[in-house]
């Protein structure tokens, strides 16, 4: 599988949903496979909150592949021997696209808090400009999970003629208080960390030493990604071998898991990007600007396929079922819905690919 990573620079203005303007801006993206002559084999993959454009394959010297490597590759469900796959890094992120750590044209200093609030709609609008630049005006499919699913739904509503098929997994049509609450805990822990320095922290220092507030916030996130069943299966009530049961700060296996993942997170993901993207997820509502959800979905022309996971506690299956219900009430038949029987939790869309890869393959080959 051929992997190509590039960054596209735009000097024209990106008009944001807030009324602000982002100018200039850049978008990093990665491609897999080969583009056919008439550009009819393109599949767009959208990433989640902490994801990046590196969705599949290995970089030189890398031990861990891209975040959806189980699904994307030669002979896999998203078959790169057939399809030309593009995954772009959203604006606001910290993996090459313009975000709060980017230096402004005027001051040559990072935006930090001067970066405008962005929305999922803005992310998709920027992505659409990228595809126009690449001469790709229609694609075979747009696919994404979690925040990537939010983007997929926005593509379907905002650009109804762009994709033949749209597949949204483990997502919602509007973020509910339960998910917003987890983001509140995460961002509050970060904002109240004195080492965050009100957004004026040293980027290199955080990557080297970490940031306790963001680490704690990420722990809250991991709790929302797994179901109670999965935690019991993975960790049970097992205690750390070297920690005494009656030591005040002795740890269970789940403690160690959260400590490890929390402490490592600030070393590879930027704190300000986390705040901005969490904000985008919190205010996400695919029907904003329309009279109702039905009014927004009336625009959808693509074949929309929804996949939820039974024990997803972050975005409940019923939230995706509401989209199917809205289609039914509109009398539209271009939507399907499946709830995957999974105990894993929200991250099942990343971990339990074997439970839905046949669905993806079938949808793409129909």
Topology at a glance:
Elements: E1 3-10, E2 14-15, E3 21-22, E4 25-32, E5 42-46, E6 72-73, E7 78-79, E8 84-88, H1 120-133, E9 139-145, H2 147-158, E10 163-169, H3 177-191, H4 203-209, H5 212-225, H6 228-234, H7 253-264, H8 271-282, H9 293-297, E11 303-309, H10 317-330, E12 335-340, H11 348-351, H12 357-365
Parallel strand pairs: 5-8, 5-9, 6-7, 9-10, 10-11, 11-12
Antiparallel strand pairs: 1-4, 2-3, 4-8
Helix pairs in contact: 1-2, 3-5, 3-8, 5-7
Overview of this structure, please?
This protein is α/β, with parallel strands linked by helices and 366 residues long. The protein folds into two domains: 3-175 and 284-365, Alpha/Beta hydrolase fold, catalytic domain (Rossmann fold, 3-Layer(aba) Sandwich), CATH 3.40.50; 179-279, Rna Polymerase Sigma Factor, Chain: A, CATH 1.10.1740. It contains twelve helices and twelve strands. It has helices at residues 120-133, 147-158, 177-191, 203-209, 212-225, 228-234, 253-264, 271-282, 293-297, 317-330, 348-351, 357-365, and strands at residues 3-10, 14-15, 21-22, 25-32, 42-46, 72-73, 78-79, 84-88, 139-145, 163-169, 303-309, 335-340. A hairpin with a 5-residue loop joins β2 (14-15) and β3 (21-22). α1 (120-133) packs across α2 and α3 packs antiparallel against α5. The relative contact order is 0.14.
